[in-house]
Every structure is written in structure tokens, then in C-alpha cells.
Amino acid sequence: MTAAPAASLSAAVAAGDDAADKEKDKYTVPGLERGLLILSQFSRHEPVLSAPEIARRLGIPRSTVFRLLTTLEQLGFIEHDATGRDYRLTAAVLRLGFEPMATKDLTELARPILERLRDATGCTCNLVVRDGRSVVYVGRVAQHSPYANTVHLGTRLPAHATLFGRVLLRDLSFETLQTLYPEERLHQVTDKTPATVAELYRLMQHDRHTDYVFDKDYYEAGIATLAVPVWGGGQKIIASLGITVSSADDDTARLSHLASQACRAARELSGLLDHIVIATNSQH
Q1: From residue 108, how far is each of 50, 114, 187 by CA, in Å?
Q2: 245 and 149, same structural domain?
Q3: Do residues 54 and 170 both lie within one domain?
């Protein structure tokens, strides 16, 4: 006797969903939707596309695609390539997204990415930039944990003695590094701190062949750090994104998961910065 009311309720819910979809469709502009779908087909790996290929991908008649392409071309968002047959995006498309994005600073762009990384890993996540011989914590999303380290927003640490610093210094040549650190011996924070510029440079050369750097008790006892480079325009490292965990956390599978998530977050932030010049204080 209870099945009929349940079926009626399901039917009512389905009818409600259909009504909601129809209400949304009433305000949808198919031409605009298709035009935006066409723009989204172009990518870094496929910068040039033909009209037939676009029609095939979207399942739209070629005549319709031609009209949409002509409209987008007249608006200045696409242009013909050198062959005169295929199409490519113009800089006008970049201005749609990147000019508003450029009004945001690095920390604003990074904040939601750090929050998602914290939620995915259950760890405190940081964004660090370099200012001369120091690294500065400019973004931090904390996760409650039984251990704690001493950093907070604005904390400055010696670049040569931190994993974040090694990531941020690694673009420098040996000569530039020597100019930055003219002293014969570097200040030792722990027994893992490189003692000389030559030793620091050797570590940086090794780091260049890895997606991330990880070590325990490198700057602070009981704390392990995983750091990943964040790239800006011109393939220049402008920040380092990372995770802090307890040094006792030595599960290999978990480390692999943390590294994968951190690298993904760094790529996402790097993608946002790819066409934006971010002003930082890092100086050679």
C-alpha cells in the first residue's frame, strides 16, 4: 500500500526537475552557447582548427558552424591562419579572461587552490615567494593537527636553508648565486643546511630533474616539507607551493598522493599565471 505514494512522489520530483530544466532552457541563447563552445575547442595543443573539424566535434551542421565562425571573426575573437582555410584564436580572447584576472594579486589567485589542496590532503598548505636572500610566506591555509610549526603569514626564513628556498633559487646561475651569497660559509640552521654555495648549487641542480622536493627536519625538527615550483609567464619560477606534514608521516603511498595533489595544484596556479605578469619582490 506504500508503493503508490512513493511512486507518485518520484513522479512529482521528476516532473519538477523537468519543469526546472524547461525554465532554464527558456533563458538559454543557443547561438551564444555554440559560439562559446567553439572558442573552447582551441587549446595550446590544438591552436588551429578547421570548420569541418569543429562541426564534427560539436555535432553542429557545417553551415551553422560557418555562420558562427564568421560572427566570431567579425568580433575579432578568431582569425584565419596562414593557409586561409583554418582558424585560430586572437589576443582578444585572452583579454576576456586575463585582463580581469590580472587585477588580482598572486595570493588572491592562490587562495582557493590552496584551500582545495588542504581539503584533498588534510595538510597545511603554503605559498612562498623569494625576497632576495629570504623566503616569505604570502599564502597559508592551515589544517588543525597535533603538531605545529612556527611559520605564519609574513614569516621570513633564510632561502638557502629551506626547501622552498631551494625551489625559488634554482633558476639562478652559479655566478648569480655566488653574487647573492658572497660569504665562504653559509649559516647553518640544521645539519642538513648546505655549508657552501657550491653545495647549495649541487642540490639545486638535482632538484631541477624532479617535479617536487621533499625532506624531513630540513629546517625545523619534527616537520617535513614538500615543495613544488609555480611558474609564471616566460617559464620563470615566481613562487613555491607546498605542504607541511609531521616528520613521523613516512608512508610511501601517502607521500605519492601528497606529491600528486601538490603538483596538480601548482600546475593549476601556473596556468592562471601563464599570461599574467605578477609583480613580486624576488630579486637576483
Answers
A1: 38, 10, 34
A2: yes
A3: no
